[in-house]
Structure prediction request, 329 residues.
Amino acid sequence: MALTLTLPTADGSLSPYALRGSVPAKPPAGVKFNRIAYSAAHVVADPLAVVDPWLQAAVDWDTTIAYRQHLWSLGLGVAEAMDTAQRGMGLDWPTSLELIRRSLDAAKDVPGALVASGCGTDHLNLDEVKNVDDVIRGYEEQMAAIEKLGGKLIVMASRALARVAKSPADYERVYDRILSQAKQPVVLHWLGEMFDPALAGYWGTSNVDAAMDTAVGIIAAHPDKVDGIKISLLDKDKEIAMRRRLPSGVRMYTGDDFNYAELIAGDGQGSEPMHGQSDALLGIFDAMSTRSLQHFAELFRLADAANVLEKPELAVQRMKTLLAINGVE
Prediction:
């Protein structure tokens, strides 16, 4: 018998809805995909922890790691402790490192599981950072801690570097030091000022094309140390232009910004197949928090139609709870 519930419609009325989708099929173990896709997975808060959530993070570690195991079972990699998922959203560096440790430990039991971990300078007090040497030491501290655990790095953009750098040469110096020491190829992350105003002028200029020249030059100087770069500029043409300029073997990772599906599909143009498409490093904020009940109802219908409700009974139960909270029963 089909599961049913009553859902609001766009015209403000209520209508019965019967689920008709099927449970999603997971890819066979060990299946190889033609793209790499990292998920910047969120953490699960411990609802029973006695803490001030504004001052201290309390993580439900078992549920958090279980979600990563679910992502690996779908063939996704995990981009751990990223700025779009945790850093700056409540997790300090010690807690982020503990998250990285637990994720890497769990990945050992999953053949082929991919984990890359955010390495930055967010533990530094910006008022105490006086020059690029301070930034280098900050990067090296997190780099050493992650690599000691056997982790692969995602070198995140640094607010501290954006604050003290005076020219593109300062960026070249910092990234040269970090890349030359990396134990395995890293992913670079260029986060635009539309996501973080403190990163305005990254790579030593406010001109995006000139900034791209610097970034591509840094990668070209260390092609064996760079797995790829993720850029978040909300400009598909800039991403495509940079993708075609990357050295052989270096990937372009797109985020779930505008046009991400088109960028992942690719245009087939480039000096090699890899540069005719983008891989993915997807991270999203709480994008569904301020939506209408009609929006959530339509999202539920679409999820059912797309066959992505892995546990339909649980999905119906939770949707009914949301409806009840809003006075619809």
The two ends are 21 Å apart (CA to CA).
